[in-house]
Amino acid sequence: MLVDSPAEFAAKRYDFVIVGGGTAGLTLAARLTEDPKITVGVIEAGQNRLADPNILIPGCKMSEIHQYDWGFKTTAQKYMNGRVVSQPRGKVLGGSSAINGMMCTYSSKEDIDSWEKLGNPGWSHEDLAPYYKKFATFTEPSKKTAEFYHIDNKVIDKELHNANGPVRTAFTNSKRVGGNAWVKTFDKLGLKMKEDSQSGHGNGGYSNLITIDPASGTRSYAGTAYYQPNVNRPNLTVLTEAQVNKITLNRHDGEIFASGVDFTSFGFKYHVKAEHEVLLCAGSLQSPQILELSGIGSRNVLEPLGIKVVVENANVGENLQDHGIVPLSFQAAEGATTFDSFSIAGVEAAATTEFYASQTGLLSSLIDSNANLSYQQVDQRTGHVSSTPISELIQVAVLKAPPILQKQYKLLGEALLNPKDSAFQMMYIPLGIQKGFDNGGGTLSPGNFITLYVSVSRPYSRGSVHITSKDPTVPPIIDPNYLSHPLDVELFSDGVLFLQYLATKEPFASLLKDGGKAFHPGFEHLTKATAGEFCRESLTSEYDPLGTCSMMPEEEGGVVDLKLKVYGVANLRVIDASIFPLGIRNNLQSSVYAVAEKAADIIRNDWKESKGVKIGRKREASPTVKKSGKRARKS
Q1: What is the pTM (predicted TM-score) of this model?
Q2: Which among 273, 341, 406, 571 has the fewest CB atoms less than 10 Å away?
Q3: What is the DSSP letter of 225?
Q4: Position 151 in a domain
């Protein structure tokens, strides 16, 4: 149930206190409270907007949906000419699943197997596959939709989708500009997807699933899927509009325990007790922030701010990885209707009417056309010869890597050289953007445009997230360090040249003015010599940060163990994308749901083994500094 009073929330005692009512947090809350003996309290900083059409309607104005965003920005990016990049994170019940692009895409088998190879037995793709299946309910497309988007039994393996999970997935019925031309073009190039991406295999172009309730045509996300059906559970309590200040840590019988959470709501400070565990689900940017505010992190970060070091771990906030994304924007063919058409009087109103009448048209989807391609598939079609073979560049990357990254880079290289694995993700949206739009200034040119995007699936560049203040309302310093590794520049250059090639191929070329040779103002024809600088000027974020509380052995860069417990604290876990130790192809949404589902089983099994015993009851003693293990080397 939702409570209006923070005092009422704080007065209760919970077996589990969950920090963050987002994608992972609400998944955990729903699964744990299936046991009526387990009590759960959830603290969320954002509002409850479960009935908000700005969230529910897929193609709503992004300017409207971003009112539920933390509004984070990166530092000036050294390797992108000092540009600053937005980092949207959902500040609303449901978290980023309430404001994302709704793409339901999946990691590769090699991605998740790499997690296990980094020191996490039990975390292979085979182990996680049942949870990819568990979180969703799939609705088959109508025969007409399947024919339009070229969806066949190769793209959808029904056996992988026969679960009855809370999140609804389906194919779009939008039939908007570009629709089936995307798949047809990849098919003509010999690059059509021939396997269900949920299997962890397959490369090519395809129409991707989206997280949508086909009955209403509205967004299906953690708020509506995991929380709303369970709102009346007496053992589940949710407090919104409450800012977490820190996790309180105490020592008992030689161990450090999380005793509860300090939070602020409407200007007043409160404390809520956790009888069993605290589960931190604040996301890749704020989970490390909250750990540091609580005294868990690097001495070099905490002591200058006057924060007592309770558990020393220099890995907190490190290993930040993000899917950068480079756009190439084109003028649409005459007569095309795109999101840019909303500037014309009456177009948006007509699209709204169409959506409510039939769940079709521009407002019925955001991004529903995807492609995963190997390095070899892209390199063979870009028409250039690299001065240095990619295999040599990979070897150099491993040799020059800090010791803490060598194992990661070796795995990245293996994936890059594997012709069956994905090195790139590509997609399109019927909308024009301004080159380098995250750097501010200017307006879009009049007209209709179509934008293609490329992302490097597993970047080599590594960044960090750290606090600069004891004040929890001060955003952390976010530095993804985009394009700091030369291999990323090489890969993005290849990828954007492929987009340019793709735009001139039929039938997709017919959607574009002059067959894909007329660019949106600010964009231009690229060559191998100019592509690298273009990427520095144009790259932005796909909003997929991960890795800042990595699941790995501590001496190799880890913050949590394979049960997602924070090293050095007996009853504190992190469950969100921050625990992903290595990047994955595609978007994070499905993997966050899957990890949260698996975590719920891990936690429930531990609960049964402990027989619900409240741990660390005598917490009067103040915590002392504890090194959680061998001190990790900074990357």
Answers
A1: 0.95
A2: 406
A3: I
A4: yes
